[in-house]
Amino acid sequence: MDTISRENTSYLPVAGVIVGVLALVLAAIALAKVSSTSKLVTAHGEQLARLDTLENEVRTATSASEKASTAVNALQRSTQDAFNAVSLELGNVKGEITKLQEAAKAPVRAAAAPGGAKAAGPVVAGPNEYVVKSGDSGAKIARNNNVALKDLQAVNPGVNWNKLKVGDKVKLPKH
Could you tell me if residue 74 is inside a domain? Predict the structure, then answer.
């Protein structure tokens, strides 16, 4: 038998070579996948670092917002306190103005009784005085007392002749 004609029917070496080539191809694919995954992990690490930075900035902004809110609340309280104080003072000023207005009207009535107090009994006219009665006017008082209206008005400069009240006293000019 010669050597060439001898056929070797064993496929084992060929199968070994095919398996080896397949192993090399699979190893190359796995290496490419590992490299790709490594790049993704690096990218995710950078994103996590950015998220940590953003989280710190949010904490800082939240703290600043809380401080500003506290300052605004304090300012609102102090402003309200100031408005309350001004309101109280305006009330006091209004009361003083009312007293001054009443005091300005008082001279006409102060003649009714000494010391500005109202007399307990009926109003009595003194010498050269007249007590206003219902329906009286300046002209009627002047006519009934035989005096000129302008003389009556001259001796009573603070009297409002359009608003005479019953019981008020007016001075009469001397004849």
Answer: yes
- pTM to 2 decimal places: 0.35
| Overall number of domains in the chain | 2
Measured CA to CA, the distance from residue 62 to residue 119 in angstroms comes to: 74
pLDDT tens-place string over residues 61-119: 999 999 999 999 999 999 999 999 999 999 889 888 888 887 777 654 444 444 444 54
Non-local (6+) Cβ contacts of 72 within 8 A are: none
Give residue 150's domain range.
Answer: 121-171
C-alpha distance from residue 75 to each of 61, 68, 70, 78, 79 (Å): 21, 10, 9, 5, 6
Q: CA-CA distances (angstroms) from residue 90 to 80, 82, 136? A: 15, 12, 41
* Domain annotation covers residue 19: yes
* Tokens, residue 140: 């009627």
